[in-house]
Amino acid sequence: MTVQPEQDRATETSCWCCGTDYPETELVRLGQHPEVGVCLGCARWLQRRAVQRYDEQHPSPMGRLRSGINAVRAAVIRKGWHERGVIGAVLRWIDRRLP
């Protein structure tokens, strides 16, 4: 087994989730596994999945509200409304501000 030189590891900046290359400043490193870098978009997606899993395990009124928001978000994506001109821009703006 060989170890990569430090300079080679520093240049590897692809997201472990989506595989896209990003500058180091746009990656989030995992605490105990600094070799794992996740881009900001995938980190947001993972955060939403973690909250969804928590809400499933700990039912609450706020969790039901977030579940409703996620259902609307899924419907918008399924219908492709987020890709339509001005309405798409507004929907994406709203999505960035919702939990």
**Estimated share of beta-strand residues:** 5-15%
Number of helices: 4
Main beta-sheet annotation: 2 strands, antiparallel
Task: Enumerate the spans where pLDDT stays under 50 for 5 or more consecutive residues.
Answer: none
Task: State the shape.
Answer: flat
SS content category: mainly alpha
Distance between the termini: 44 Å
Kindly report the average pLDDT value: 87
Give the spatial strand order of the biggest sheet: 1-2
Order of helices and strands: HEEHHH
Radius of gyration over C-alpha positions, nearest whole angstrom: 18 Å
Portion of residues in helices? 55-70%
Short structural summary:
This protein has 99 residues and is mainly α.
Provide structural commentary.
With 99 residues, this protein is mainly α. The chain folds into two domains: 12-58, no CATH class; 60-99. It is built from four helices and two strands. The protein has helices at residues 6-11, 40-57, 61-79, 85-97; strands at residues 27-29, 37-39. Strand 1 (27-29) and strand 2 form a beta hairpin.
Relevant terms:
99 residues, mainly alpha, two-stranded antiparallel ribbon, 4 helices, ClpX-type ZB domain-containing protein
